[in-house]
Fold each of these.
Amino acid sequence: MSKIFITRADGSEVVVEGQPGDSVMTAAVRQGISDIIGQCGGTLSCATCHVFLADDQLGLYGSVSELEDEMLECTSTEREPSSRLSCQVTLIDGVDVTITLPADQL
Amino acid sequence: MSAGVLVIGAGQAAVQLACSLREDGYQLPITLVSDQPHAPYQRPPLSKAFLKGAASVESLAFRDPEFYETHEITLLTGERVVAVDRRDDGSGTAACASGRSLEYTRLVLATGAVPRRPPVAARGLAGTYVLETLDDATALRAGLADARDVVVIGGGFIGLEVAASARLLGRSVVVVETATTLMGRVVSPLVADRALLHHRRSGVDVRLGVAPTSIAVDDDAVSGVELDDGTMLPAQAVVLGVGVSPRVTLAEQLGLDCDDGIIVDSSCVASDGTTLAIGDCAVTATPEGAGASGRIRLESVDNATEQAKIAADTLMGRPRDGRWVPWFWSDQGDFKLQIAGLRHPTDHAVVRDYPDSSKLTVIHYREGRMVAAESANAPADFVASRKALGNGWTLDPARVADPACSLKSLLEDASRA
C-alpha cells in the first residue's frame, strides 16, 4: 500500500491510499479526487490527469515516454519539469507519493 | 423528506452526474438504477484492454464501493425500471420489474444505447456477439479464445477496435463494411484511407463495399459469413459492430419528444420541461447544426461527462447553456485516433502529412475558422488543436500543412489573431 499526498491548486490537502500496481490517476479517481479527471481511463488519449510530482520523487517513476511527452505538450495548466500524466505513475509498494494538482485539466 | 434524483442508468453519464451533484452540495438522495448486475464500470476498455486480457473486471470500476456509501449515492443494480408514473410537478414513481417502486423528485434518463443487429443476424445465435456491456465483453472474450477465424461486421470505431484486439490475439480477422470507406460517418476520407492502410498492414482483411447475406450455421453455432459477392468467409466468432440505437422506451412512454434519441435542450432538459436526459440516449442541438435537423447525438465519454455536468447544474437550479468542443478517441491496436470538434463534409480540409505514413493530421476550416481536427498517431497535434478549438483560436492553415512546424508553435500567433 502507498499513500498519495495531494495538494490541490487552492492549497487544500488530501491524502488517499492506493495499491501497488495502480496508477496515481486510478487510485485518486476511484476515491473521488475530481481534480484529476482521467477521461480516457489511462490510455494516453486525453491528458486530463496532469499532476506535478514532488521534485525528489521524479526519478522514482520511470521516464516520460514519447507518447506521454507529446500529450503533455499543451496541457491546460502550463507544463513544468515536474509534470507527469498520473495514469503513467504506477504506485510502488510502501512508497508514498506527493503531488500537486494543476488549476485546470481541460 | 424529498425523494431526490432518480437516475435510470449507471454508465459514464449517470456516475458523473451523481458525483457532480454531491460535489456541488446537492443534499437530497441520489439513486442510480441499472438492470446490469455490476457496479458502475468504464466501457471504453471493453473493446481494447479488457478484450486482450490486459484489464481485469476490478480495474474497470469508476469508483471504490466505499465512495458511493460515503457520498450517499444509492446503487440499485439488477433492477429494471419498466414504467414511470409522473406527476405534474415533475416528480413521480418508477416501477421496477421486481415490483419495487422508486419515488423521485426529478428524473434523469441515462439509458444509453443498444447495439443494432443487422438483418442477417437478427436473431441471437451462438458465436455472434454484440458489444455494449461488461457481460457482452466477457462473452466475446471467451468466444475469441475459442475462435480461429473472426468476422467483424461493421467498420466503425467499435468494429475496428475489436478487429485490432482480435488480431493482436493472433486471430485471423476479416472486417466487412458495406460502405466504401471505414468509419464513414465519423472521420474524413483521408483519415479513413490511412486507417484502412494501417489495418491491412496489421494483417486485418478489410472488405469494403460488400454486404453479408447470410450467416452459416453448423451444429447450432456460427461457421461462416456469406457475402453478396459470393464469398464465404469461415468464422467461429462473428462480431456485430453496426452502430447503436438510443434506448428511448421509457422516454416514449413518458411522452417525451424523441428523434433518434431523447431530444433535450442545451441544459439537458427534455420536452416536458422537467425530465433530464444525458449521454448516448440524448440528442441535442449543435451550434452549427451537424445534421439536417440541427441536432446531434454523440456517443462518447466526453459527451457523457459534459452533459452530466450540465445536468447537475440544471438540477442545482442554475441551468446554463452548455456548449463545448466535443472530442473523441479510438485506439485501434496501435492506430491512435484522436478527434476534436465536429466537422462537416463541406469544410475545407488542410492535410498535415508526415513522412511516417502511419501519422497524419487533418484540420478542418469553415469560412476561414478552424472547426475540427483529426489526428492519427499524432498526439501532439491533437492536444494543440484541442487547445486552439477550446479557446476559439484558428491555427494558420498555410502553416499547419508543414509537418516540420509544430502546431504548438502556432498557438501563440493564433491567440493574438
Amino acid sequence: MSAYHQMGHLAQNLLHDPDLGLYAGAILSPVNYEEEEVAGQIAGLKAREQFDTVFDPQLYCPKATRGKLPNWSYYPSDVDTADVASMSWWYQVIDRVVETCAHIGPRAVCSPAMLPNAFTDQCFSHLVDIGNRLSRCLEGTGILPIQTVVAHLPDLAAPDRALQVASIVTRTAAERVYLILVSPTEPRREFDDPEPLKGGMRLIRTLEDANLPVIVAFSSSDVLLWKFAGASACATGKYFNLRRFTKSRFDEPAEGGGQLPYWIEESLLAFLRESDLIRVRNHELMSPASDANPFGQQILSKLDETPGAPWLGLGWRQFMYWFADIEQRISAGAVDVEALLRTAETNWLRLEDAKVLMEEPRNDGRWLRPWRRALLEHAQA
Amino acid sequence: MHPASLQHVASSICNAHGYRLVQSVGSGSFKETYEVVSSDGAHQALKVFQPGFSPARTKRELEAMTRCEHPNIGKLSYVSTFPWQGQTYLFLVEEFVPGGTLTSRLRTQGLLSPTEGAVLGAQLIDAVAHIASHGLVHRDLKPDNILLRADGATPVIVDFGIVRDLAEVSLTPTWSLRGPGTPFFSSPEQLNNEKAYIDWRADQFSLGVIICVSMFGFHPFEQPGSTPDEVVELVAERRTRAERFHAAVRDTGFVILERMTAPWPAQRFRHPHLLAEAWCASLQPGTGDA
C-alpha cells in the first residue's frame, strides 16, 4: 500500500523534499532525463531503505521522439520502419532495455508497451508475451520485472471485459502489474461515466485477488476509486493535477501560455484556481486535510501576505502531498471513501445554494454522483 | 471402418510383437484400448487408432506423453505403426493401470469421503501442475480419463488426445462454436472456444468439477433436477453456481472448490503452486472432515 512519484520534468528536487516523504517509490522517466541523470537519481535514492525505484521505458508511442527518449541506448533506431507487431522486434528492444537497466540500476522495470489502435485480446496477449520475455531476461540480474498493462477505460464498460482482460494478464510471469488506464477524457475534466470506472475498478480488484499487486499509473484525484477497488499502489506526478494519460499527450506540444496554479481541495474533491480557492475559503469549506497540508499553509500565507504572487510550484507540492496522504489514509482504513465523496457532493450543493460559481465552467462537482454510483455498485457486485 | 474391427488389428499387433491380448478396456470415437501382457509378464495398455485420425492431434498427444514424467500420469512405452489389410494403423503401448476408471470406482463404491477427496485432489493437482510446467493443457480431464492403480486410490491421468500445447498453433478452428473436450467437465472458455483465455486454468476448472462430482455427486453449476445439457449451458453462459454447491463446500471445508470452478480464469488460482498450497491448507485439521 503506497504512493509512487511519477517523475516529470524537473521533478528531482521533489524526490528529496522532506514534506513529500510519504512516497514509497518513484517511477523514473527517460523522457525528461538523460541516462546518466536517471542513473544518478537512482544512486541518490539507494540510501533510502525500502524506497522502490521503477524504470518505465516509455515506448507507448515508439515513433514519438519525445524529449530525451531518443537519446537512450535502448531507443530503437529502426522505429520508423519496424513491424512493431513482431515479437522478434520487441525481443531486441527488451534485450536493450535490460542492458540499460543493468547500467542505471533500478529495483524494478516495467515491461515495454505500446499504445495500440484497438485493445483486443491479441493485444493483451502480446503485452504479456513481452512481459514474460522481460521476466526471463531479468533472471539473475536482481532487477524485478513489472507487467505493463495498457487498457482503454471506455472498453472496460462492456460486461465482463475487465474479467477477460484479467484472464489474459494473470498469465504474466511478473509479480506486479503497472496499469495504465487510457481515456479520451480531456485533461482538466474528471471521468464522469460510472460504467468505465466500474470496469477499471473490477480489473484492479480481479488482479489484486489473483495475487498480482497493481500500481495504477498516471493517477490523479481518481486515486480514491482505484484505492477503493484495492489497488496496492497509485502513482502520480506534479503535472497530474492537470493532465491525464491520453493518446494526445504524444502529439507535438501546441503553442500556449504558461500554466495556472491549482489547489486540490478534499472537501470538494476538485482542483481549484486561485479565485475559487478564495471563494471556498471564505465559505469555510476547507477540509482538515487541507489545513494539515504544509504546502497548502504556505500557499495561503503567500496569498494573504502578497496577493497575486505566483505559487505554481507550491501547487504541485500541495497536490502531491495530498495524494500520498490520502493514499496512506485509505490504505490504513482511516478514510471512508464513500463518505468522502458524499461530503464533497453535499459541499458542492451548499456552494450552489449559496450561489457560488467557480471560475472554470465545468468545475461544479458533477462527476461526484457518477463516482459514488461506481463505488456503490462496485461494492455490491 | 467400424471401430469393432480394431479388435482384429489389435490381435494382429499382439501376434507380431509378442503380446497376449487379455481384454478390451475402453473405446473412444477414434481409438480402442486393450489390456495386453508382454513376454516378460508385464501388463500394459495397447491403444490402436483408426487409420487417418487427425495425425496432428495424435502427434501432439504422443509428444505430450513423452514430455510428461510423473507418478500420476500414464507412461508411454512404445509407439509404432502396423500395416493391416492395406491400411496403416498407429498404435501405442503404455502403462496399464489396473484399478479401473474413477467413474467405475464411483459407480461401484459410491462417493468419496472428504478425506479421500482431499488425497485424490492433492495427487491430481500435482499431476496437473506437472502438465502445466510443460506448457500443456490436457483439456479432457474427466473421471473416465482418471485411472486408479491397484490400491484403488492412486489416480493416473491418461488420454492426452486433445492436449493443447500453448507454444504451438491451436488445432481447433476459431470458427468452431465449441472447443474440444467433454462438455460436462469443460471450463466455460473451452465450451465457448475462447482460445485467448485457455491455459492450465481450464484443467483446474475440470479438476474442481471432478472432485465436486466425486465427493458430492453433482456438478457445481447443477441445480436439482437439471439435465447435463442444461448444466453445460449454465457453465458456458457463466451463470451462478448452485446454492447446494456452496453449502456443500462450506460444510466439508472444501471452499477452495469455489475458486477452482470460478467462471473466469482470472478468478481461479493463477499458478499451480498457489493451488497446491491452498489445497494443502484445506487439509489442515479443523477444516471439515478433510
Amino acid sequence: MRYSYFPGCTLHTQAKNFGASALASARELGIELVELPDWQCCGAVYPLASDNHMALVSPYRTLSSAHSRGEDLVTMCSGCYNVLKRTNVRVAKDPDVQGKLSAFVETDYRGDARVLHLLEVLKTDLGFEALKERVTRPLTGLSVAPYYGCLLLRPPEDMQFDDAESPSIFEDFIRALGATPVDYPYRTECCGAYVSISEDERSGEPARAILRSAGRYGAHCIVTSCPLCQYNLDVKGQMPVLYFTQLLALALGCTEVLQDFSLHHVDPRPVLAGFANGV
Amino acid sequence: MQLTADKVRSEFVFRVEEISGEKIHGCYQCGKCSAGCPMAEVMEYLPHRVLRLLQLGQESVALSSRTIWLCAACHTCASRCPRSVDLSRIMEALRTVLLREGKDFVNPTRLPPELLEAMPQQALVGGLRKYS
C-alpha cells in the first residue's frame, strides 16, 4: 500500500505530534506514505464564493502532482482533506473551472485523483479487522469521545465520507484499538473553527458545549483529526484532546513518538497511564 | 422598516446571489438553519433572520451585523435545509462584498504575538482568508 502523502501546513509545525504519530503508525502497519515533494498549503478553507477561483489553484496543483505519480493522495488533517476533496469534485464536475485552472497551472488535470483520509485507508484498504489483529496494546477500558466536527462530513454531497448526521468510522476505529467509543450528542457539531482568531470571547462557546457534552457522557478523552478542532477544544483545559493517530500509535506500541506532549495544553499522560503502557 | 420594490429587488441582492450562487427567495423561513447553528446562541441576528433581511433588501443591516463574521462556515445549515439553500455560501458572499471593498474584519498585523504563537497555522491561514 503506497500513497502520496499531503501533510499540510500544520502537521510540520503546531501539529508535529499528529504527523509523527501518523507516520510511525503507518510504517508499523505497512502503509507507505511518501510525502509529495512539491506540496503547497491547500489554503485551509475551501472558497465558498463562486467566482473565487484563485483559492483553488494550490489544491489543484497538489491533486495534479499526486495524479501524475499514479498514486492516491492521502492526508489526515480534516482541513486539508476537505479542501482537496472539494476542489477535486469541483474540477471533475465543472468544465469551466477545470479549464481555467488547467490553463493557469499549465497541466490538464481533470479530477481523476482519489483523495483519501487516513481513516479511510485504515477502514477500506487495510480493514478495521486487520487493524485489530495488529494491536499489541489494546486500550481496554479507555472511554474515548470521537469528535468529527464539520470538515470530514460536510457538505455531504462533496465529502461522501460517512453519514453526515450519524457517522460511525471513528467509533469503529476506536473499537478496533480495544477502547470504548462514547456516544454523545455533540460529536458532529462545529467547534467554532477559525472564528477563534477574531478574539471574540463568544467564539469559544461551541467548544465549551462539546467538552461539557463529552464529559457528561463519561469520556476520559476526545479524539479528533483536525489541528484546529484540537486547539479550540484543548485550549479550554477541560480534558485531554488527542489526535486519532496518537491513540493508534499507543495501541500499536509505537511509543517512541509519544514521549513529548508539550504541544498539548492538557497533558494526556495521567489519563492514558491508567489504560496503556509506555506513556 | 419601509419597503420599496427597488429595495427588495436591489442590485445588492443580485450581487449576493451572483457571488453565492444561491437563491435568496428560495428560503421559506422555517428556521432549521438557526436551530442547528453552533454559533446561534451568540449571534445578534439568527441565521434565518439574516436571510430574511436580504429578502427584504436590508443591505446595511445585514452587512453591519456581527453574525456574518461569527459564522464558521461549518455547513450544518446547508446540509439540513429543506429548500437546499446553502446559507454558508450566502454568509460568505456577504463577507466577500465587504472584503472586496477593503473592509477587513481582522487586521493581520494587529494580532497579538502570543496568539500567533499559540494558534495552529490552519487557523491563521483559514481565518485570515475569511477575515481579511
